[in-house]
Every structure is written in C-alpha cells, then in structure tokens.
Amino acid sequence: MAHNQEWLDRQERTRWFLEDRFGMFIHWGLYAIPARGEWVRNVERTSVEDYQAYFDEFNPVDYDPKAWARAARQAGMKYAVLTAKHHDGFCLFDSKLTDYKSTKTKAGRDLVAEFLEAFRAEGLKVGLYYSLIDWHHEDYPAYGDLYHPMRDNEAYKRDPETFGRYLDYMHGQVRELLTNYGKLDVMWFDFSYDIMAGEKWRASELIGMMRSLQPHIVIDNRLEAGGEGGGSIYTKEPLAYAGDFASPEQIIPPSGVTDEEGEPIPWEACVTLNNNWGYVASDTNYKSPTIVIRKLVECVSKNGNLLLNVGPDARGRIPRQSLDILAEVGDWLALNGDSIYGCGQAELPKPDWGRYTQKGNTLYAHVFEESVGAINLAGLAGRIKRARLLADGSELPVSRPWNAALFESDAFFNFARPEHYTYPLPDKRGTVVELELK
What is the radius of gyration, based on Cα positions, of the chain? Predict the structure, then answer.
C-alpha cells in the first residue's frame, strides 16, 4: 500500500527506537520525600502551601546520574527517559520561566542537565518526560478539573480566559528543553484527558515548534491520549500531533498495536518495577527478573518496546532491590540480547512453550516451559538450517524423533541426545535457541 510523507518520516524517526527495544523510565521529584507516590497531591488533596515543605527540604545529596547511567547500560537498556516536570509542576531543570525548580532548592543543581550528560556519556539515547498537567501553576484549571488536588475547592475556581498564559508557559518550557539541552531523542508527554486534549494544548503549534527545533525527535501519543486510550495514531489518518509511538501503560496489548488496516504502529509499554512510578517506601512488591525478561520478550514478539521504570528515593538513590533486578536482567541480555535488539514479531504464531522473535532469516525460540520429549517447532519441517543455544553458541540436535511420525509438517529440537528424552531448560528464566531458516 502507498504511504504518505508523514508515515515515511515517522518510519525514519523511529528506526533506532524499534532497534533498541528496552529503555529506563525514571520518575523522580519532590514526591520522593513523602514517599507515597507521584500522585500524592491528587490523592491527599494537598494544597500548594502544604506541599511547599517538600520543596524547602529537597536536597538529594546522593544523586549520582553516572551511577544511574551505568546501571541502565549494564541492564541492557539502550535509552532512558527522566521526568523533567511531573504533574506537581516541579521542574528538575533550570527553567527561566519559573522559580519552582531544582536550582532554587537546597540541591542548587540542574538535575536534567546532569542526567543528560551522564547518560549520553554511557552511549545511551536520552529522553525527557514533560507533564502537560501542572498543579502548581496558577492558570491551570483547578476547581472542577478531573485531577487537580483542589478540584472540589471552590476557592480555586480559575478564569478560563487565563489558561492561555499557562499554555504560553508550557510551550515556553518545551522550547527551553529542546533549545538548551542538546539533542534529545525522545519527548514523552503525559497526558490528555476529558476536554484537556489535542488543540486544547495548542498541539499543532507545539508539534510544529518541536519539529522545527529537533526534527528527528520521537514523540509519544499523549498530546491527544492518556495511558488507557490510543488517539488517532491508531487510525489510518493520524492527526499532526498523533505522535510517533503508542504508549500503553501497565499493560502489554494482547496482539501488539496496529492501525485499522493491520499495519504495525511503533509502540512502547511503560511498566513499573514495583506498583508505583514515584518512590514509595512501603512498596516492596517487585517484579522478579524472570518476569521482566519474559515481558520484554513478549513486547518484542509483538513489535513493541518495554520502558521499565525506577523511582529513586529522596536522597537520589535508585532502590537496591531495583538495581539487583536490573543487574540480573542485564546478565541475561548480555548472553541473549541478539534475540531482542533489532528483532520483532515472527512470521509464525505463538508456540505453546514460549514465544518467538525474529530478525531477517533468524528465528529466536524463547523457551519458557519444559517439554515432554523433543520441543515442537510447528510448521518448520525442512526449514531449519541450523540450531544453536544463543547463550553459548552450542549446537542443538534438530531431527525427527521416533515418536513424532504423525507430525510431518513440524520440526523438533532438544537440548541433548537422545532427542525423545526430557531435559531441564539450560536457563529457567528464558532459554533462547537461535534457528537459522532456509
């Protein structure tokens, strides 16, 4: 089918994004001090005045972005996205448009500038998250808004006529981020809802400005969508501000993301490592390294990326448990990364024992479940040139065991001979077999 220039431009912009597949999300700000999540102001109906205590106290003495960057690279992540401004309006960068920023706290530092320098130095691509919502700004709708902490307080009724001042501020900050901090690879907006969507943000104007400053930048779909919705990127005629990729949140779409005609759309599942984005001291409900590995494989098997979140604490440290999980995921990727980076959906349906990813003529069998006897490769009889265990390159026997005579269209492999025996998986987290197809 014929594609228009917009579509072709998106393909070019997202080429690296679809190769890299695995990134780090970092939610960090004043909310690390109460340590009850990044929506603490919303949940507890906290006023700007009461929240000020955290601004006065903020001093992350252990913030070492070089350590964060090393952890991300060693985890096998290829890019990272930091919250430059979350919904509470606090800026981790030295914006000229506000004093509500990290350089005016005890920290006295431009935390975004340091993050970008450290992550670029590790060879990682860099992105910034910017909240379209702002619970600190006096011209952002408060009383009657769906989410504002003062949504039920009539004293916070705003004059709709002044919303334009907020938009000027918001556009101005995006311009600062794209002008003062070098090349950014990703701009991650969050989020649209209710009537606050699309042109309510002056979205066409915003995108035009961004493309003029950094035409290569990859932008998410949340100028017109939230975590639960898709927006026009899911249609065959996306709007100018539809974004370059879809951003399902805390869910992996059952069959990936395609437009109305079944054409794949770039997408990235954003997922927390425990149950919260911002640091929550009491939340130790972490996903195991095995789950993270298998969910990364699942995303790639459906042409998607995984953006995995960490929430550093008030001192600026990524929690030890998060680092331990990331380290183990990195150990697995060091051996099996060829089955993730540059790979996508296979031409075959999902097998019973796990998942497939594919890169050109190379099919990767991700075996999660032990088999009874040889492992079945449905429909691949006569199509396998060679089979190797990806982690060490060792040859695996591909043959037709005596008990598989009825399954003429299928191929079979196993981890040792005789092939009809049952063997333990070499790696219980996910054993990857590299199959070269004829």
Answer: 24
How many CA atoms, within 13 angstroms, populate the side-chain half-sphere of residue 113?
13
In the block, tokens 């032990």 appear at 370
CB 23 within 8 A of CB 79: yes
Query: Position of tokens 């695996």?
Result: 396
Give CA–CA dist 85/136, Å, rounded. Answer: 11
Of residues 135, 132, 163, the one with CA closest to residue 151:
135
Query: Is 198 in a helix, a strand, or coil?
Result: helix
Decide: 374 and 348 in contact? Cβ < 8 Å: no
- Please give the single-letter amino acid code of residue 328: E
Q: Within its chain, how far is the Cα of 395 from the centroid?
A: 35
Q: In the block, which residue shows the tokens 């970008």?
A: 116
Consecutive H or E run containing 15:
helix 15-20
User: At 264, phi and psi to the nearest 5?
Assistant: -65, 140
In the numeric block, the tokens 């031409």 are attached to 347
Reduced to 3 states (helix: H, G, I; strand: E, B; else coil), residue 295 is helix
Q: Which helix (H) or strand (E) holds 25?
A: strand 22-26
- State yes or no: cis peptide before 191, omega within 30 of 0: yes
Number of H-type helices and E-type strands within the chain = 10, 14
Q: Within a 13 Å sphere around the CA of 293, how many CA atoms are in the beta-carbon half?
A: 26
Contact 241, 207 (CB under 8 A): yes
Cβ neighbourhood burial of 1 (10 Å; 0-12, 13-18, 19+): exposed
Distance in angstroms (rounded) separating the CA atoms of residues 333 and 143: 48
Note the pLDDT of residue 2. Answer: 63
| Residue ranges in the chain whose pLDDT is less than 70 | 1-2
Residue type, 141: P
**How far from each other are the two terminal CA atoms of the chain, in whole angstroms?**
28
- The single-letter DSSP state of residue 205 is H
For residue 228, what pLDDT is reported?
80
Q: How many residues does the chain have?
A: 438
Class of residue 384 by CB neighbours under 10 A (exposed 0-12, middle 13-18, buried 19+): middle
Beta-sheet pairing, 267-272 with 304-310: parallel
Which secondary structure element, helix H or strand E, spans residue 113, and what is its range?
Answer: helix 111-121
Distance CA 386, CA 394 (A): 11
Q: Is the CB of residue 378 less than 8 Å from the CB of residue 409?
A: yes
Which of 173, 219, 230, 234 is closest to 197 using CA atoms? 230
Structure confidence at residue 6 (pLDDT): 87
- CB environment 325-334: b (16+ within 10 A), e (fewer): bbebbbbbbe
CA 163 to CA 43: how far, in whole Å? 24
